[in-house]
Amino acid sequence: MAFDIKKINLAEQAEAGHEFEVKLPDGSSTDFFITVRGNLSPKMKKYSKDLFNKMQMKELQAKKRNKGEQPIDLDEAEATLIESAVARIVTWKGLEDDGKVVEPTQENIVRIMTELDWARTQVLEESDNAANFI
Length: 134
Fold this sequence. Notes:
The protein is of the alpha+beta class. The protein contains five helices and five strands, in the order H-E-E-H-H-E-E-E-H-H.
């Protein structure tokens, strides 16, 4: 039997998303589940292309001002990681704050990806793993 590319559309499956349980840093269960889109999804491909273009423009502007290569600012690097994680999240369930449900709104997604860097790491890893979308 031959491999049929019509039957495995990773871009489509990556856009639909993959649900995983967020684990505490010690590996404990949380009952907090996040659905992420994969790197091969159209939305993530566009995000990556836009980010690349933004970085190129910044570099070009620095060269025009004769500043040469600028070191990466750590705050800017973290902001990019947060933005990248936020772009990958489709939805979540099982998250509360002091007994109140935290809905997956854009504002809350940014807040949680900013505050819970260990959860952000898991979002990025799960999204990067193409095997999650087969």
